[in-house]
Amino acid sequence: MSPRTSVVWTPEFLRYQLSDDHPLNPVRLDLTMRLATELGVLDGVETVEPEPATEEDLLRVHEPGYLSAVRSAPEMPFDVGHGLGTDDNPIFFGMHEASALICGGSLRAAREIAEGRADRAVNIAGGLHHAMPGRAAGFCVYNDCAVAIAWLLEQGYERIAYVDVDVHHGDGVQTMFYDDPRVMTVSLHQHPLTLWPGTGWPAELGKGRGEGYSVNIPLPPGTGDAGWQRAFHAVVPSLLDEFRPQILVSECGADAHSEDPLANLELSVDGQRATYRAMRELAERTSGGKWLILGGGGYALFRVVPRAWTHLLATALDRDLEPATPLPASWISHATTLTRRPLPVAMTDDADPAWTPWGDGVTDRVDGAVLDTRRAVFPLHGLDPDDPRD
Q: Which SUPFAM superfamilies does the record cross-reference, listed alphabetically (predicted)?
């Protein structure tokens, strides 16, 4: 029997617009849903309508004073602090409501799985992984990833794996569960010496009972599909096989792509598609097929994000698209009215995402990062960091 997949969506998600010229533009969500619809990925799928997260939901991970600041900020004539009113996180009218709705979307996706209506659930508007307990950060007001995970813990889940493939470190989620062994956070990201937020070193392992449950794989600028896949497969499957999560939560930011204007990794859409398929296989193998899928960053709004996340939706629905699938002429026509940049014509970058496994005698530029992470974390889980079989 095919896994049941819920897709959480409402056009109201487009209200999360920090400013007219902010990089995190909700047009990427609209274009993704249009493309997935026109390619038939969503044929017969009745999307699930979310409700805003309640104050109780948000207080599972955020501080009361911060919620008050977010609510009042649009009416305040002075600096409210808490990371609000910055270039990254400008204040906008309806900020609390728009942010709470995105959190509600991720909560609804989590509920679809926990309450038995789905094995997989997707909220592409989610993945706002930088928000901290008491402040906004990195375009993120409320941390929907952490809100959903905290709710799952309250439902009795004891082992939740969070795998973050955004180009930026998943710092907010790591912070919120840094001492909790029930949540293993794994983040692959551009090296913190070269990209905001400057965290995500292999030595960030967690603390107390949570030691060993924060895992970071910092990759050098310029890492492409082969190196990225090599690093992912050298670390993530072994840890998830050992941890045996009851549910896999994935943050699927599309900003590791070579065309993304805010970072310096070199993945292709083909490599991103391969990553989504790898996480699907890991969910089937390690978490009984339970997979909660969230969006994230991605600032190549027209050329990259819609294609990457249409592949993501197709993967979640077991409706995999061939890379050479042409983009519909109607979609290209619509997108052309929004951008002057030339648009791709197919769901591929004509890239080969093949990779060579770690430990096969071939030296790759990511191997130093892989070994640093394996040596920091693997012994804490009874795994041999120098044995490629682990």
A: Arginase/deacetylase
**247 within some domain:** yes
Structure tokens at 168: 């930026």
> How far is Cα 274 from Cα 281, in angstroms, rounded to an integer?
11
Cα–Cα dist 141/147, whole Å: 12
Range of the domain at 332: 5-381
Q: Which residues of the chain have pLDDT under 50?
A: 1
AA identity, residue 288: G
- For residue 183, the model assigns a pLDDT of 98
Q: How far apart are CA 27 and CA 96, in angstroms?
A: 20
366 — phi, psi (to 5°)?
A: -90, -5
| pLDDT for the residue numbered 2 | 61
Q: Is residue 319 part of a domain?
A: yes
Active site residues: 130
CATH assignment at residue 254: 3.40.800.20
Maximal C-alpha separation, the chain: 61
Instruction: Please list, in sequence order, all residues whose beta carbon lies within 8 angstroms of the beta carbon of residue 180, skipping any fewer than 6 positions away.
Output: 153, 209, 210, 213
Q: Is residue 71 included in any domain, yes or no?
A: yes
d(CA 344, CA 303): 6
Judge whether 345 and 208 are in contact, CB under 8 Å.
no
Among residues 158, 152, 145, the alpha carbon closest in space to that of 297 is found at 145
pLDDT at 66: 97
- Which amino acid belongs to residue 139? F
Residue 123, phi then psi, degrees to nearest 5: -130, 95
Does 387 map to a domain? no
